[in-house]
């Protein structure tokens, strides 16, 4: 810990306002988590090993999970090792899969990420039809992506 011998320590990657919230937490044991600061706060708490703040941020994010943000939150949870957020984001993805495939973010997934999302899932639940197998979903996804690229190239000519 070479920081011990320095009089000034530069914390790169931490927003000044977020650092202020964390310093306030260290003095008061209270933290103000908002929709606008939660991700930055979780990242900083993770970096500074403030596990109680990180866990509070994770719980906050779980409450705001929805089909329109579950893919991004799943990736964020994996990056910052947030098991509850990752598990809940995956649950939203699988339980609302038919809605998820209509989201713009879904179209940006590659096959590996799709396989990661579906890992361990043998059937997807759907209220509109019988359960879909993981392989049929992957085949459908790949066909959709291939046809989308074909359609884009046709439109440009």
From TrEMBL:
Residues covered by the BTB domain: 3-63
Domain called BACK: residue spans: 70-120
Gene3D superfamilies (UniProt xref): 1.25.40.420, Potassium Channel Kv1.1, Chain A (3.30.710.10)
Keywords attached to this entry: Kelch repeat, Repeat
Presence of keyword Metal-binding: no
Superkingdom of this protein's organism: Eukaryota
One Pfam family per UniProt: BACK
UniProt name for this protein: BTB domain-containing protein
Species this protein is from: Myripristis murdjan
């Amino acid at each position: 810990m070479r920081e011990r011998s320095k009089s000034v320590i530069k914390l790169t990657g931490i927003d000044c306002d977020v650092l202020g919230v964390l310093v306030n937490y260290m003095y008061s044991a209270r933290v103000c988590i908002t929709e606008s600061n939660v991700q930055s706060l979780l990242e900083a708490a993770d970096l500074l090993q403030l596990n109680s703040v990180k866990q509070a941020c994770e719980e906050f994010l779980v409450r705001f999970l929805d089909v329109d943000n579950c893919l991004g939150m799943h990736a964020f949870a994996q990056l910052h090792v947030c098991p509850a957020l990752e598990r809940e984001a995956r649950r939203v993805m699988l339980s609302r899969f038919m809605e998820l495939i209509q989201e713009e973010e879904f179209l940006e997934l590659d096959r590996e990420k799709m396989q990661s999302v579906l890992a361990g899932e043998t059937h997807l639940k759907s209220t509109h039809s019988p359960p879909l197998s993981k392989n049929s979903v992957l085949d459908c996804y790949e066909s959709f992506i291939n046809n989308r690229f074909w359609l884009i190239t046709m439109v440009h000519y």
